[in-house]
Amino acid sequence: MKPKFWFAIAATAVVLGLLVTLVTVFSTGTGPRGYVAKHYTRAERLDRPGDDDNRAYTSRKAPSRVANSVAQAWEPITQYTNETGVYLRYNDDAVIVQPRKRGSVIHVMDLDQAYRHYHHVVGGAWGWTSPHGRSFRGGGPGSGK
C-alpha cells in the first residue's frame, strides 16, 4: 500500500481520537460545576430565582465536608467560611455550601452573580473592593481608564 494511504488512515484516527476526547470532556463536565453535578443531588426547586446560571444541589453531609470534597477535587482561588456557610471562589464560578436541615444546599453560580448576591458576606474576603465584582484599575496616566 502507498504511504499516502497510511497517512490518511493515521490522520483519520487522530481526528476521531480528538473528537472522542472532546465529547467526553464536554459531556461529563469539568471544573467545580461538573464535580458538584456528578456527586450531589440536583434540587431545581432551590435554584435562585432570576439567575439562569445558578444550579442548586443537596447533600446529607455537613457543609464543611461538602466544601472540603469540592475543594480537594478543584482547588478554589479563595475560600471563605463563616457561620452561614462555605464560599468557594473559582475563575468563573462560585460554589456556596450552606447548612440545610440535615445536610447542605450547594449553589453553583456565575462568579459575578455570586458576588452580587453574597457581597455582604464575602465583600472583603474574595479580594474585590467594588460592589459589582470588578477590581479597581488604578488612577495614574495610561492605567486603562
Automatic annotation (TrEMBL):
Domain of life of the native organism: Bacteria
Name of one Pfam family that matches: DUF4247
InterPro entries per UniProt: DUF4247 (IPR025341)
Protein name: DUF4247 domain-containing protein
Organism: Actinopolyspora mortivallis
